[in-house]
Design a protein that fits this description.
CATH class of the largest domain: Mainly Alpha
Strand content: under 5%
Number of strands: 0
Largest sheet: none
Helix content: over 70%
Radius of gyration: 20 Å
Number of helices: 10
Shape: elongated
Distance between the termini: 66 Å
Structural class: mainly alpha
Amino acid sequence: MFERGKALTRLDIESKLRNVGNYVKMNYLQECLKQRLDLDTKRFVSLKLAEMYGERGMHLNAAKLMSNAAEISSTYTSKINDFMRAVSFFVKGNNVQEAEIAFGKALACGNEVEKRVMKSSRKEIYLNHAQELMKKEKRSSAVILYEHYLRFDINASEKLEVQKILLSLYQRLGKMNEYNNLKSKIN
């Protein structure tokens, strides 16, 4: 599959990917990451594999690859974009701690305007995924995202809206201690 001593190029990898099915592509890309690659090719392979993992619901694997790709990106803009995509994948994989680590790395790469955009984007990522989870009746996972969302810098109306959603979720999940604590905070 791989020639000994020869470094793979992006063109070699792209030509191999044209002729094979999705699972063979994933296996080939995984094997490519174990080979000696220049940074641009390694980033390309990581992004391609992350995209494929994301399409198949393997969000945590995709997130790790996106973070790795971001680390070797040559521009701050691509670092920010890759880290924010990693945040999205980590949130979809219900790993809020890693999402926040990736978000911190993205923030470190941006200026003040970019930081505001990233913070807004992070709020959207959390809310959108929490709403998706609600549609799928995955209330416990949605609670985790909504609780974490309350820690963000949000205005009073957003906070009240999320608290009302949490009250409903706590009640439906039978979490009466959390329900009563939140109800007393709201009133």
